[in-house]
TrEMBL record:
The keyword Nucleotide-binding does not apply. Residues 209-311 form the Fe2OG dioxygenase domain. It comes from Conocephalum japonicum (Liverwort). This is Flavonoid synthase I. The gene is FNSI1. Keywords: Iron, Metal-binding, Oxidoreductase. It comes from the Eukaryota. GO terms for molecular function: metal ion binding; oxidoreductase activity. InterPro entries: DIOX_N, IPNS-like_FE2OG_OXY, IPNS-like_sf, Oxoglu/Fe-dep_dioxygenase_dom, Plant_2OG-oxidoreductases. Belongs to the iron/ascorbate-dependent oxidoreductase family.
Amino acid sequence: MAPPGVVPATTRIVPASVMKQASEFSDLPAKFTKSVGERPVVAHNDYCKDIPVISLKGIDSECEYPRIVAEIGQACEEWGIFQIVDHGISSDLMKRMMENTLGFFDLPLEEKLKYSTKPGGFPVGYASGSHRTDDDILDWRELMVHRCLPNSVRETDYNIWPEKPEEYRKTLAEYSDKIDLLVTSLLGVISESLGLPTDYIKNAVGGEEAEQKILFNYYPQCPQPDLTLGLRSHTDYGTITVLQQDDVGGLQAYKEDQDKWVTVEPIAGAFVINLGDQIQILSNARYCSVEHQAVVNSNQTRLSLVTFANPNHNSQMGPAPEILSETNPAKYRSYTFKDYLPICFAHKTKKHYDALVI
């Protein structure tokens, strides 16, 4: 029998190991081939130099804090994505997290399958190509998903986190806590950039009961990277996303006002920050939830660690009343966060937040 909460291989949701197919096929299997309009148009290493890179050095000082608020506010308004350096998370922890994640993906397939995502319900665990059973066209990636916060969720899930590599659970918990502190700091800066109290967004999304999900993406070398994506284009439905990537390019963002895709340059020791739908809605569309995707290449594998900070499912969301006025009326209706995706799926809008437009 499988351990509690772990799916036996016979009921797994892993359609095929992408790592295995990468080693066996010289042509891309049809189930990974995207339609012409969904294929990448910019190379994985054609880096955009315009995406803001913001230093958080001096964030606790009266001298530097106004600069940081201004720079992040401008980046949220013009891009919806930016990079941060001098963020206070040690290079040692970032390195250990990468090593442990790579160690998991390097395990034999039968070991990874012990942690397969269950069909239906919240997508937690290991999957390949997709964590959904109804996907006709798959992404060129393997993935592992954990629920890490609030603490009540971690206490429930901790014992079903992988035991290999040896330090996996301990390192993941440490990383989760450090990223949570960073997110709290960033949400405070974003709140102030909107003219709101420092703790406004943190409180709006549930305070200490806000939810955190950590996703590991492994993108193998691809025989025909021009025909597929590592991860299809989307916006994140939550609050804010913190991405740690290795030195291989692949993350791309859509610059809507210029109608073009740009590739985010990997910067050693940096985190990529992108806004989710809830910030766009809370800011009444002053800030943008950026559309993004991941492309792959034929020469190198790529690894990324993604932390999603999401509202508690009972949080009441919508435009912040404090920023509305006669000249800035609400563009979106209010809702409970647990209803957000069902509302969006029912309306079948291309961008989820358009389903809430008044």
